[in-house]
Structures are given as structure tokens and as C-alpha cells.
């Protein structure tokens, strides 16, 4: 009986437990929606975010306090825009980014492009004499004959008779690549370009003589014309009808004159213009830029002749107006012990001394040489006395007369005016040494001639 009661009690307990579960099952079938768990937030960035550059549209990175290391953005292999600079090699930092800053792979491509400066254009090469030859060539002609010219390290040296007319001379200047005649604002003691166009140019001397500038006098204006657009210029002092070369030189030789800077184009250097005179000739020198100029003083008895000469040229000596039978020898000392070397060059400020001597001509010589020479007979030079007589009376010779050199003649650096000679000269296998024969214009044609014989008939 008791066992039966226990079974009934157990069934009742089981039934009551089942009844307590029924209401919960009804609620599970309730159609009203239950709240859903929030979906996971994902990064949508294409470019990695940094603390200074966060993608505001990204739901993950834009959150306050977001962990940016979870950003899924990557640096594209090819930038959206072509860089102005070549790309830096992989693994190397851009020069402008310090080592402690983020590496290139962590920086957005837009920022990287901004931080790399564009290459600055190279500075233009400065004008220099080494790259542009300002003056290709310079020549002076007289009556269509080229005037004697010497060129030393880019300096041009011309020598011509001082008594010749300035209007007889023509200048031809050929400019180098990149050079052009250019008008400049003049300074005192300059030869400058006063005006220029593609066909005509005028150069003037800004030199003040007797309170007046030569630039205000058309006689001293050098007028040049060009037929090739400004490369080759030819002309002269077309208005200098009253000027001789020595009068022009005398007006400017006492001044330190230069061709103005900029006259041969922007950036061209100035060039010294040297003018020297002696008793016969005028020497004009247009120096190369930055040429060293020395003063050579020639002592002639009690007077001094000063010449300005460019370094490196052969040492010249002035031509003196000597009397009949006189000759001059140049020495480097006042005691006339050390003769000037025939190969000397201008390399320092120097003083040179003239020793003028008269030929030892017997006033009543034996008639055999001088008389025969004057009479047109054949003669032989057998002594220095015969030589000196021949030099003095060479103009007395006649056509067909034979003068034979019977010995070697050492003139000991004497200078002679070129001789007038009308006969036949036989050297006899002998030599004439250490003599200078200077040019003379005392010729039948009036032209300047040089050498041992200026006139042959």
C-alpha cells in the first residue's frame, strides 16, 4: 500500500513539473522579434591610416580611440599619379624623411609625393672666355695690303708707319660664337660701342683731351658695317681726313685705355688697348682679357721712351731717327756691358739702354773702296770699315755693279734703316749677323718696306 502511494506521489510530482514548463514553451513561440547581437565592424580603407591621416568614412578607423594597427589599407604598387621624381629604390627611405619618422611603406602615397621636393632646374652656365671665343680674328689693312701683325696668347699687335693717313686703314673683326657687338654706357678712358644694329656699329673713345671728349668729335669715331648679320665687321675712321696715324696715337697714347666690358656681348671682359710710338712707327695692341701688361722704358741718351707691352711678346726696340753713319745697340745695363738678347721676351717691368755710335768712317778714305763704290765699279767688303761705307753709300750703286761680301760681318746688334741698293749683291758664302734692318717708307712707291734692301732696281 505504501509502495503504491509512493508511485502516485512520484507521478504527481512529474506532472507538476511538466505543467510548470508549458508557459515557457508558449513564450518561445511568441512572434515578436528578439534583439540581435551587433554585427562585426570591418575596415574599408584602401590606404593605411595614420594618427595624422584617418579615413573618416571607415566605420572602424574613424571610431574614437580606434586601434589603427587593425587598418587593412595597403600602399598600392603603382601611385595614382606619376611621380615627378624617380621612385626611390625599395627599402631605402626618402631623403627628406628622418629615420625616426614612419617608413615609406607606412606613409600614404599622397603625402609621400608632397614631401619629396621637385628637382630644381640647373643654374645656367656663366659666360666665360673658355667657352665662348669673343673675338675670332682681327686684321688691319692699308691700301689693301695687310699690316704687320703679331699674335701673342690672344693679344693682337699691329705696327704701321706713323706718317700714314688714318683713312688709309681698314679694320676687319670677326666675332666668335656667341659674341655680338653691344652698346654700353661709357666710362672714362674706354673705347665703347656707342650704337649698333645688325648692319652698322659706331665705336668711340671716351677720352678727355684738352677738356673735350674725343667721343664728341666724329674724326675719332670708328664706323663698322656687317653684311652677315653681325659676325664680321669691317670699316675705319671714315671722318678722319685730317688725321695721320701718329697724330691719332699722340691723342690717346698717354691714357690707360681699354675696350669696354660688355662691348663684345653680355659678360664679356674688358681688354687693354695699348698705343706706343717711336720716331717712325705706331704700335697698337688689343690685349686678350686679363693679360698682364708691363712697362718697358727705353733710355736714349738723356730721354726716356715708355711703352706698355703684353707679357710674352718678343721684346721690341723703338726705331730711332739716326743721323748718317749712326747705329744703335741696346743693352740691359746703363754701362753698356750686357747686350740685349735677340731672343728676349717681355716678362717684367724693364729698362733698356741705347748706345748710339757713329761709324768710324775716315773723312779721307783710301779711294780704292769708296771711290770704286761711287764710280759703279765692282767692290768687295773686306772689313767693318768697308761695311760701314757700304751701308752709308749703298744708294750710290748702279745697275750691274757687283758688291761682294768678302768676310763674315758681325754687326753687334746694330740697327740700320733698310738700304737703297741698285746693283747685284754677292754674299760670297759669308754672313751678316746681329743686325736689325728697320722698315722705311722712303721708297719710290712710298710704301713701307723692310729687310736689308728696301729698294732694288
List keywords for this structure.
4 domains; 12-stranded mixed β-sheet; Immunoglobulin-like; elongated; 30% strand; 457 residues
Structure overview:
With 457 residues, the chain is an alpha+beta fold. It folds into four domains: 45-77 and 92-111, no CATH class; 133-290, no CATH class; 292-358, Listeria-Bacteroides repeat domain (Immunoglobulin-like, Sandwich); 367-456, no CATH class. 13% of the residues lie in helices and 30% in strands. The chain is built from five helices and 25 strands. The strands form six sheets. The protein has a twelve-stranded mixed β-sheet, with helices on one face. The longest helix has 27 residues, at 2-28. The chain is elongated. Residues 21-31, 90-94, 109-116 and 121-132 have low confidence and may be disordered.
